[in-house]
Amino acid sequence: MTPPPAVPTAETAFSHPPTVAAYRGLVRRRQLWLAGFVVASGTIIVGGEELPVADRAIPLFATMLLTAPVLVLMAALALIYTPRTARILRTYPWRAYPCRYPPRGQRRDFVMAVTVAPGREVLLHSTPYRCSLEHKRNTHPDTIWFAGDPEGGGVASPVGGHYPVRVVPTAMRDGQRPPLPPADALAESAGLAKDGRYLRYWF
What we know:
Layout: H1 17-50, H2 58-80, H3 82-91, E1 95-100, E2 111-117, E3 120-126, E4 143-149, E5 153-158, E6 165-169, H4 170-174, H5 185-189, E7 193-194, E8 197-198
């Protein structure tokens, strides 16, 4: 295996051109998802009013009718909160950390275990959608690029910065987080904390 490329020396991750291009791709994907769900929802609603529905298809149609608005809402929220990713990338530089992906049967497939210091491992998971970075053109699965604060979350990408994904500590989301030290000014600038306390973001 070839050695991983060096972490960019730029002041922030957003000064790294491949990362900027990847972020724009993330925004476009979420715009397309939202547009697709809106069109699909409209088609279901209009089609349901104008076309006869067989009796046996009514439960399926009702399920689709109830699910469509939820999908639109989730896609809209993901797009609305995407600038949070950019804010973090504009605040923190990329750092390379040893990483492993716990077995699928032991942990969820979107969880990664990142060694942020000798003897200290943090479990992070992608948000708002499940995303296994292990399979995103990842030529060095034992290393992850991370921009952020391990206590409050941040953005992770396979080596190269080509697939930035928002991540948060698993314990924070599960409500099992022990008391944390006060957050620093950098975490507040990135929107990860407020008044010295880390925020529990799901997005």
